[in-house]
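Exercise 7b. Backbone tokens:
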């Protein structure tokens, strides 16, 4: 596949996703929702994307359209290939839809997929920051659910001290990696 073919295939995949996800609602409806989100993507632009007349999609358009449809840009970019369908992630580099979605969403590209062959390794500090931030979110959720006690079937409240310690360590690591932590840590360790 040539570079132009790859570019058009990527745009066409997004167009198919937009058309499918908006369903019976009009392109004007979608345009109006993007406007409500703060930046209108015009009806004619949406129509051109859906019908393959557009050769590119601007990043802001991708983000706005995804939000207006109640999904993520990764879903639009990998539409019809998750989990195991093949997707040409980069020109001449194929991977599964789920590996592509993970990578687009900030995860690491599976090193064992043909798409990763010969590519530079992940920028390690960035990869570590994303991983630590995701782990912080998981630990914080577990801490909240554990503190709710009888409202959930979550593990024993005796885990609270260990979860708080883990959360504190993650916050320190995120700061070391240059991450931004809200005042108070943005967590439930209170």
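Sequence design result:
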């Amino acid at each position: 596949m040539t570079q132009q073919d790859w570019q058009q295939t990527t745009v066409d995949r997004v167009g198919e996703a937009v058309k499918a996800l908006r369903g019976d609602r009009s392109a004007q409806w979608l345009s109006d929702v993007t406007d409500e989100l703060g930046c209108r993507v015009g009806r004619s632009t949406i129509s051109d994307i859906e019908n393959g007349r557009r050769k590119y999609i601007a990043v802001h358009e991708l983000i706005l359209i995804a939000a207006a449809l109640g999904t993520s840009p990764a879903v639009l970019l990998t539409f019809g290939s998750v989990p195991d369908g093949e997707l040409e992630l980069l020109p001449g580099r194929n991977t599964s839809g789920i590996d592509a979605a993970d990578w687009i969403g900030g995860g690491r590209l599976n090193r064992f997929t043909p798409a990763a062959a010969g590519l530079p390794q992940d920028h390690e500090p960035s990869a570590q920051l994303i991983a630590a931030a995701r782990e912080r979110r998981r630990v914080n959720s577990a801490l909240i659910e554990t503190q709710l006690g009888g409202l959930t079937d979550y593990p024993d409240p005796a885990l609270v001290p260990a979860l708080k310690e883990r959360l504190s360590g993650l916050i320190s690591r995120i700061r070391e990696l240059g991450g931004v932590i809200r005042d108070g840590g943005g967590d439930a360790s209170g």
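Instructor comment: The chain has two domains: 3-116, 124-186. The beta strands are 86-90, 93-96.
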